[in-house]
Amino acid sequence: MINKLEIREMTADHIDGVMIVENLSFKIPWSRQAFVDEITANDMAVYFVALCEGQVIGYGGMWKILNEGHITNIAVHPEFRRCGAASGIIETILETSGEKGVKSLTLEVRKSNIAAQSLYKKYGFKPEGTRKGYYSDTGEDALIMWKNGI
Please, are residues 119 and 90 in contact by the beta-carbon 8 Å criterion? Predict the structure, then answer.
């Protein structure tokens, strides 16, 4: 665990740090504008950052669509992985989902990302299907996971 880990709602002030984590985490990263649009113009979206001593070390977000939620992304800076940041983000998303009337949450995860799958299973997500060739960078399949009864 990280000392002094804070989870806060993402603001424009966090975008520079989010972009560092994004670029270190994904071969095809979201653009800066995509994150700005998510937090300023998408009424369905809510995003959080994990902070350690004021530095963005991770982030995650979800869309609320009626009574369902879709976790769009969760990423943690490589130097801070396996330190509790992703768990803090997931716990905050689950808490926020309940407050917003979300009854079930879904997400996609690379079939090869066993560590992430294990983390999601820890929080009650279950594999429910596959999206063939979902990831455009490699053509890898995505495992679709759901958590019901939020």
Answer: yes
Identify whether 108 is a catalytic site residue: yes
**Which of these is catalytic: 22, 47, 108, 135?**
108
In order of their start, the domains of the chain are 5-148 (3.40.630.30)
Q: Is 120 a catalytic residue?
A: yes
Q: What is the pTM of this model?
A: 0.94
Residue 96 CB-density burial (10 A; 0-12 exposed, 13-18 middle, 19+ buried): middle
Q: Work out the number of other CB atoms within 10 angstroms of the CB of residue 100.
A: 13
Q: Is 97 exposed, middle or buried (0-12, 13-18, 19+ CB in 10 A)?
A: buried
Report the first-to-last Cα separation within the chain, whole angstroms: 25
Active-site residue, selected from the candidate residues 47, 120, 128, 140:
120
pLDDT for 145 equals 99
Q: Model confidence over 74-121: pLDDT tens digits?
A: 999 999 998 999 999 999 999 999 999 999 999 999 999 999 999 999
Beta carbons of 58 and 86 less than 8 angstroms apart: yes
